[in-house]
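W.,

You were right to be curious about this one. When I first looked at the sequence I had no strong expectations either way, so I just let the prediction run and decided to look at it fresh. Below is the sequence, 64 residues in total, followed by the output.
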Amino acid sequence: MLLVNAFQGILGFVWFILVVYTLYVLVTGKKPKNLSKLVWAIIIILLPYVGVILYWIIEKNILK
């Protein structure tokens, strides 16, 4: 049980770092192609899982 809790804690921390890094890239990068920076920031903050995935797929074309 302790191992499961530790694993969940590590995954949560890694996801938090990914959200912070995505916001950093958004703020310091060039103007987004599809939506404004403010809209992307709101999406990433309010919907962290979906927002981060959508940002990297739509704006950064990670699937190309």
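Here's what jumped out at me. The first helix runs from residue 2 to 28. And, maybe more interesting for your project: The CA atoms of residues 44 and 53 lie 9 Å apart.

Coffee later to discuss?

I.
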